Amino acid sequence: MKAAILEGFGKPVEVKDTPRPEAGPGEVVIQVKACGVCHSDLHLAEGDWDALKRITKLPLVLGHEIAGVVVETGPGVTTFQPGDRAGVPWLHWTCGECEYCTSGRETLCGKQSITGVTVNGGYAEFVKAKASHVARIPDAVSFEQAAPLMCAGLTVYKAIKSSGVRAGEVLAVFGVGGLGHLAIQIAKARGVKVAAVDITESKLELARRCGADWTVNSGLEQPRKALRAAGGGPHVALVCSAAKAAYEAALSSLRKGGTMVVVGMPAEPIPVSAVALVAGELRIIASAVGTREDLRELLELAAAGGIHCETRLEPLANAGGALERMKRGDITGRVVLTPDAG
Ligand SMILES: [Zn+2]
Ligand SMILES: [Zn+2]
Fold it and tell me: What ranges in the chain are assigned the alpha helix state H?
């Protein structure tokens, strides 16, 4: 089969011929119909994150936003059959026995394996996955739309859920990119009022199309002031941007008792004033991807028509080029690779 392969950190990702995976016990082989290109893929390929660099398999097939069709099931698999529509997320496998797995927090499992990091991912014609951790994709959701939900959508879905924000409250989304534009729609679907903050007017335009109640151009106006005017300031600030300035603006704009959710990851530490935290009894929480249950809920929401991701379908052969363009900041919408095109 064809797969886009990373031979070493910092090396270009190139499409090569490689043996098709075979399903072992408890596993399925999925024919990939769509695989999203996530910003993490670029960081992984460059070896930017030490904690992941240590556990990254090389050579590696990147890609953890996979949607496709089951073509083979291994011994013991009863939950999937050939022909089933299936999705593979970042969490490839978790132990099911540790304190985190048994308390609904499998994203923290210390024994987890990770799709497109510790095992081969979806920049390929076929991928192998654990039946226990594969998601069912509803018929109403296309492969192209389902793929980005596996990481980008899931990450913000769980972040919003973890924040505890309630219907009628105000959530401010900082950074209207791949994650941010999905966050706006997910929050709106939960009855939350949404303010979107970005420095680029075209992204604010996207935010309005996604249903944002207020938009704030942080290059033209002070986010704190503008957000206080918009619904009295956010109960929750969800920071999808990787800019340090976004974190400063987010924390200072929260209403008393508010919560800042860390999702975007700047390379440098984020400044936090203990005085501001104490005076406002503010909370800072972080969220990483999501559990299988979160993913099921998100796919149901998508099937009900609640979410539309801005995608651009490109052939698998473009994998390396897409990462190059991402590095230059030259990407609008989620690039979704498909082995079926061109
Ligand atoms: Zn991702
Ligand atoms: Zn575990």
Answer: 39-46, 50-53, 143-148, 154-163, 178-189, 201-209, 223-229, 244-253, 274-280, 292-303, 319-327
Ligand 1 centroid to Cα of residue 56, in Å, is 15
| 7/134 same-domain check | yes
Which ligand number lies closest to the CA of residue 38?
1
CA of 295 to the centre of ligand 1 (A): 14
For 291-341, the pLDDT digits (tens) are: 999 999 999 999 999 899 999 999 999 999 999 999 998 787 799 999 976
Instruction: Please tell me the distance between residue 51's alpha carbon and the centre of ligand 1 in angstroms.
Output: 15
Residues 168 and 130 reside in one and the same domain: no
Q: How far, in Å, is the centroid of ligand 2 from the Cα of 113?
A: 10
Measured in Å, residue 292 CA sits from the centre of ligand 2 at 13
Residue 318, domain CATH: 3.90.180.10
* Ligand 1 geometric centre to CA of 165 (Å): 23
What b-and-e string marks burial along 14-31, b requiring 16 or more CB atoms within 10 Å of the CB? ebeebebbebeebbbbbb
- Domain extent at residue 165: 154-286
133 and 210, same domain (yes or no): no
Dump pLDDT digits (tens) for 4-58. 999 999 999 999 999 999 999 999 999 999 999 999 999 999 999 999 999 999 9
CATH number of the structural domain spanning residue 169: 3.40.50.720
What is the 131 CA–ligand 1 centroid distance (Å)?
A: 20
Within-domain flag for 223? yes
